């Protein structure tokens, strides 16, 4: 017998999309960006992919300010970089405590309201798309929730805590856009590649009460984010030797479109957000030093916001993260221009 209390019946994704529909003009923008992104992951384009933005999308006004600035930068580097903003609207919590993301708490200072959250995240992604032309990335923390946003996104990540979960893998196999599968918290490359293989294969499974069939996702690929060893120490996996190891491991598997994105924060930086600049530079140097690495490493993931660092919920600093610390705008902008100048293409 369950002890859960059911507060309210929520609209299904189809009903939500009918309430907040995507226009044909915006749908065309999404399709065009999706085609360019597939070209990057497959190697048909040698642009560098840059997934960049706040650790969590905690405030619509500050997120919009950030992405409007990012739009101006994208226009200046469009020949070399393809930017996908991070709009992460639900946050994994290791212990279950803390801010759960806009889906749960559209107002970070208030209690959970899932209906308001569903509306808020759809409206935010639609506003970014209509005002800036950016289709964005979000994390598939809950596979059953993905349908609320699936017509708006450019890119999906499956997190380190979720990548071994079968439902995440099966759902990723039916997502029609590139999915980045993060290495698990323990760091196993075999587990990472198994998750990619599962996502690239077709499956039949139960999804939201339906018998579903997925065709397989040939654009599922790796994200290296570092890991935690058995002693609780954070260990990076972005170095030249790590990337060569992944090249070799990919070569031993029959996987489509070998690709990796390097996450410059999390365990790779030891959660020292300023280290993201040095890590990005090192990855670019590894790409220049090895043709194999240059082909495999398609881009970088960077946590960035208007202000450096992080603050507590209710801290009052506009555009400062309330989850993991982020690079501020000035440092981020300089880094983007530097990356554009140093692509190996």
State the separation between the terminal residues, measured CA to CA.
59 Å
Question: Can you tell me the residue ranges where pLDDT is under 50 for at least 5 consecutive residues?
Answer: none
Question: What about the largest sheet?
Answer: 8 strands, parallel
* Overall mean confidence score, pLDDT: 95
Helix content: 25-40%
Number of strands: 12
Rg over CA atoms? 19 Å
Q: Could you name the CATH homologous superfamily?
A: Aldolase class I
Succession of helices and strands: HHEHEHEEHEHEEEEEHEHHEH
CATH architect. name: Alpha-Beta Barrel
CATH topology: TIM Barrel
Shape: globular
By helix and strand content, what is the structural category?
A: alpha/beta
Strand content: 15-25%
Number of helices: 10
- Spatial order of the strands forming the largest sheet: 2-1-12-11-8-5-4-3
Question: Briefly, what CATH class?
Answer: Alpha Beta
């Amino acid at each position: 017998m369950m002890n859960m209390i059911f507060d309210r019946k929520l609209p299904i994704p189809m009903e939500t999309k009918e309430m907040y529909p995507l226009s044909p003009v915006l749908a065309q923008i999404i399709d065009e960006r999706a085609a360019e992104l597939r070209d990057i992951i497959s190697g048909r384009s040698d642009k560098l992919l840059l997934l960049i933005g706040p650790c969590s999308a905690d405030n619509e006004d500050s997120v919009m300010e950030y992405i409007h600035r990012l739009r101006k930068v994208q226009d200046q580097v469009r020949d070399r970089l393809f930017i996908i903003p991070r709009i992460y609207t639900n946050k994994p919590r290791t212990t279950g405590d803390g801010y759960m993301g806009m889906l749960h708490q559209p107002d970070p200072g208030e209690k959970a309201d899932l209906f308001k959250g569903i509306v808020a995240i759809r409206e935010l992604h639609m506003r970014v798309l209509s005002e800036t032309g950016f289709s964005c990335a979000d994390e598939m923390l809950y596979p059953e929730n993905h349908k609320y946003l699936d017509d708006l996104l450019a890119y999906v990540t499956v997190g380190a805590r979720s990548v071994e979960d079968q439902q995440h893998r099966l759902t990723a196999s039916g997502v029609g856009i590139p999915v980045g599968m993060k290495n698990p918290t323990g760091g196993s490359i075999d587990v990472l590649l198994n998750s990619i293989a599962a996502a690239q294969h077709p499956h039949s499974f139960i999804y939201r009460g339906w018998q579903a069939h997925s065709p397989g996702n040939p654009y599922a690929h790796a994200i290296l984010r570092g890991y935690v060893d058995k002693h609780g120490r954070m260990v990076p996996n972005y170095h030249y030797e790590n990337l060569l190891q992944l090249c070799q491991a990919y070569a031993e598997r029959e996987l489509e479109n070998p690709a990796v994105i390097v996450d410059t924060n999390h365990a790779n930086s030891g959660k020292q957000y300023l280290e993201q600049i040095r890590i990005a530079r090192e990855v670019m140097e590894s790409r220049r030093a090895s043709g194999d690495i240059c082909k495999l490493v398609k881009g970088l993931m960077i946590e960035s916001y208007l202000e450096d660092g992080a603050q507590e919920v209710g801290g009052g600093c506009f555009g400062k993260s309330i989850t993991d610390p982020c690079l501020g705008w000035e440092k981020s902008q300089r880094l983007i221009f530097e990356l554009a100048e140093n692509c190996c293409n």
